Amino acid sequence: MKSRDQLAPENLMLSDYLCFAVYSANLAFGKAYKPILEELGLTYPQYIAIIALWEEDNQTVSGLGAKLFLESNTLTPMLKKLEAMGYVERQRDPGDERQVRISLTKSGRRLREKALKMNPVDTGLASDEFAKVQASVVTLRNNLIKSVRNDE
């Protein structure tokens, strides 16, 4: 298969675009995770927010947003829903009233036990392939972020 750089622009096919490969892989991940998310009663963004809190509880909203690459106008409504579901608590930081901290409730921590008992999504990759693909995607994401910052 020729790379995009080897093709004349007029010969480019949708399948030649890396952005489409990543986009369609994201859609495939959504379908693969659908049974898990339905069982947990979460959307994918809610799920990754909960995972980030399992990793490090009692984070600031801004810190969590940075970790998840989400703006506060997307993150705040999602956190309010998770709070209404009983999985997180939002409290002003006593040391800095401008900051809001997010903490898991007992139900939020128990959700991890439930998730860990579920069958993981099968990517079909061997562990060494998985690590290489994951590292490549992270490098791609970071390069894109740098590129956008350089253009601003």
Automatic annotation (TrEMBL):
Looking up SUPFAM superfamilies in the UniProt record yields:
Winged helix' DNA-binding domain
Record localization: Cytoplasm
Indicate whether DNA-binding appears among the record's keywords: yes
Q: Which UniProt keywords apply?
A: Cytoplasm, DNA-binding, Transcription, Transcription regulation
PROSITE patterns tied to this protein: HTH_MARR_2
- What GO MF terms are annotated? DNA binding; DNA-binding transcription factor activity
Family in the record: Belongs to the SarZ family.
- What's the protein called, per UniProt? HTH-type transcriptional regulator SarZ
